[in-house]
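YM 10:42: Polysaccharide biosynthesis protein sequence, as discussed on the call
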Amino acid sequence: MQLVHLDHRNRRSRAGRSAGCRTLIVGAGDAGRTLAHDLQETPSYGLAPFAFLDDDPGKHRVDRLPVLGPLSALAEVVRTEAVDVVIVAIPSLPPLELAALLRQAADSGAAVRYLPAFHAAVQRGSRGGDLWEVSPTTLLGRDEIHVVRAATRAVVAGRRVLVTGAGGSIGSELCRQVRSYHPAALYMLDHDESNLHRLQLEITGEALLDTDELIVADIRDRARVDQVFATLRPEVVFHAAAHKHLPLLELHPCEGVKSNVLGTQQLVDAAVAHGTRRFVLISTDKAAAPTSVLGATKQLAELIVRSRAGSGTSVGSVRFGNVLGSRGSFLHVLAHQIATGQPVTITDPEVDRFFMTVEEAVGLVLEAAAMAEAGETFVLDMGEPVRMVSLVEAYAALVGKPGVEIRFTGLRPGEKLNESLFARSEENVPTGHPRISATRGAVLPDDLDAGLAELYAAAAENDAEAVRKRLAALVPEYQPPVMTAPAARDLLDSLWLDDF
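YM 10:58: structure's back
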């Protein structure tokens, strides 16, 4: 089947009139045609179909949209036709073929959506509402920032790369993007074997769990961490493993210290000892002027990374806002609450947060790896913070559920009404990237190592009160809240709000 290229002048004029993302539908059968019609009739989805791909050589135009070529031409069509979104609309496609198509589209720079299994389509016909996710970019209140510059890919190309927390939302997206930049080796480390199984299936289409690239390890186990670094000799490390739910760490601060602080120190020290070229920690905006255990432990992790500057390993950190689309975060819980008819839970009518997409988060990490020298912390320009109420209303409108009920649960211990990206004591400095800033923070405390030893001892004893006091001594901006029994019970409401 001959590959068809659209006239670029016509393409630009059509794109200019379209209010949505330029969308290529893979599959011009019944499901694809129904989907294209539904999307054209419902511009609020933000997806504007302009063409199909299909393996039937007899199909040249379907419902006034051209068929540009076979499925094997996907990567080329994405590049040549400026495709924003690819939707795979072949519900009966075998899983391995589906995985290969999704990988081609993602590697070519397009976002990917796909329809559910065939039996669901048969029951009531394929509809736009069957798409498995609403694009987070429609909820940002700003244009998505395409952070990664072409030269940045050289940071990982041909290098041995290790990603910790590889099975998580950020870690798995990091693995997908790093893999597309052709590293010499990509090692994916996680303590959860189920996460690794799912990740390998998503990336390769198979999950035999029999390759050296999958590493089962706990970053809190120093001997195991040293063994991994001594064996693999990673040149670039992206450290995404962490405990990150604010309410749970208020209840279990010792576990937060063991993973977020001790785990980070053991990793960065192993990186220095074994000659790693670059080490990047993934942190959170809650580390700026922290009021929670999560924020305090992440600020300490940033301090530890910065203290290793000048060691021969280029080190740095990145602060994320709330990441739309990450597993367990706002969109997933909100979608479940609305789909099941539950009230949407928000802590306060005036609470707002900084938001970024998974793609922006990963781009920031890769750019930080290229720019980090002296332990800087990098922050993406995320525009103005977004009120949670406005975000819920926008999402409800997109999925056809306006007027959704909202229940306000009240701010929880350690939670801020408004987040900040930089603390008052931090100097905000420009970088070589126009949308990324950096901070070097205050002078490192002289007694950091001694204070950390006392903190680790308290955590090892599972002494929550002592851990909070030690955190406050090391991070003066952090003041542990007074925990009452009712407050402790209320901590488990609205967990999604604090996922970064």
